[in-house]
Amino acid sequence: MYKIKKTGNMKVDAYILTDDISSVSEAIEQLKNVASLPSIVKAAYAMPDIHWGYGFPIGGVAAFSEIISPGGVGFDINCGVRLLKSNIIYDEISKHLEKIIEEIYKLVPVGLGSTSKKFEKKLFKKIIENGVKEVIEMGYGKNEDLLFIEDNGTIHPASMEDISELAYKRGREELGTLGSGNHFIEIQKVVEIYDKEIANTLGLFENQITVMIHTGSRGFGHQVATDYIKLMRNIDKNLPDKQLVYAPFYSKLGQKYFSAMNCAANFAFANRQIITHYIRKAFSNFSRLDLIYDVAHNIAKVEIHDNQKVVVHRKGATRAFGPNQKELPEKYKKIGQPVIIPGDMGTSSYVLVGTNKNFAFSSTAHGAGRVLGRRQALKNLKINEVLSNLEKKGIILKSKSKKIIIEEAPEVYKNIDKVVEIVDKLKLSKKVAKLIPLGVIKG
């Protein structure tokens, strides 16, 4: 862990929760800029998967008493991850994996600009204001799913009045679509259990088949962020970085952004729910799929920390509440909130739980974190080598884009085992299980 002492315009210290900062100098400057924002509380934190992002670094966590900043949430609002568990082991389904992946690929629109059926405005309004319960009423899932989604799949306040017509037009055909970039659907196998008691509570066991979904609010969330960044650009002209625009949280504009952001978050929860419905359909002849948990990675939330109400910004970071928090489902009260940290498409992912010893506003890492930018990846890597390496590991891959395969190759990411080892050692979250990919769908 590295500490950057308060200097210059910094109002608090900053902490980088990793053992190697040699490749993240730009992101460190961003974290120092975050520490310079008004009303920041306690410290600015960067998780072990830190890398450069828009405004805040990805992996950045900060809490404020009086402001909200779209750059602290990002463009893909509530990009998040959901984990489903089966009741079967690998040997029972290994011969059918390719068929299942093909079926999911047919059912779920993937790739840049992918669209689904068009949701007319009245129904779209209900979904973005009320989240997952609306799509469950439409037949996309079961009521039990709501128990195992952060905030039960609905965040308030959320009003369509705070959404632009352009945002609606971008979002109305995107519900139930995966998108592109680092978004994926992955069929996995549990290969290691670190805490049997907690794994039992979660319903996880060795050789079990699981399915992970990683996607967010698509073009809808991107437009929400774009709209409000423009509206906030003249509030503070002395910012160290113009990407850190903000609004006073309790101002009219601050509340409108908060509402619009929540609309995009509800959209993302609903998006993952609809995708889940289609994955269950593809698995219907083999196993039921129950939801373990669904958690956001890009969001700002009002929480109480150290007896103070603050707006916690998590940009490429996961909420990780410890045991006995009122926000947790009854089933998980004793063990803490499930945390799902995906790796890249050639390595492991992890299930962890939150602890009560977390010092970083109950936050932990959200993934491996990039070490190579997309342009560098395209320049340095060859498609045949990437595909050959995945094939050697027995990983089935479906993607519409060779470009995305290169941009998302395992070589462009940090070592996920090391990232998870750090958050476990620092007690930001506790390791429970390790999963490996068997089949991956990319945009």
Automatic annotation (TrEMBL):
Residues holding Mn(2+) 2: H214, H297
SUPFAM superfamilies found in the cross-reference section: Hypothetical protein PH1602
Keywords, ordered alphabetically: GTP-binding, Ligase, Manganese, Metal-binding, Nucleotide-binding, RNA repair
Reaction catalysed by this enzyme: a 3'-end 2',3'-cyclophospho-ribonucleotide-RNA + a 5'-end dephospho-ribonucleoside-RNA + GTP + H2O = a ribonucleotidyl-ribonucleotide-RNA + GMP + diphosphate + H(+); a 3'-end 3'-phospho-ribonucleotide-RNA + a 5'-end dephospho-ribonucleoside-RNA + GTP = a ribonucleotidyl-ribonucleotide-RNA + GMP + diphosphate
A biological-process GO annotation: RNA processing
Record flagged with keyword Metal-binding: yes
Pfam families membership: RtcB
InterPro entries reported in the protein's UniProt record: RtcB, RtcB-like_sf
Signal peptide: none
Gene Ontology molecular function, alphabetical: GTP binding; metal ion binding; RNA ligase (ATP) activity; RNA ligase (GTP) activity
PROSITE patterns: UPF0027
Binding site for GMP: 182-186, 297-298, 342-345, 349, 366-369, 442
Subunit organization: Monomer.
Family membership: Belongs to the RtcB family.
UniProt name for this protein: tRNA-splicing ligase RtcB
Originating species: Thermosipho melanesiensis (strain DSM 12029 / CIP 104789 / BI429)
Taxon lineage: Bacteria, Thermotogati, Thermotogota, Thermotogae, Thermotogales
The encoding gene: rtcB
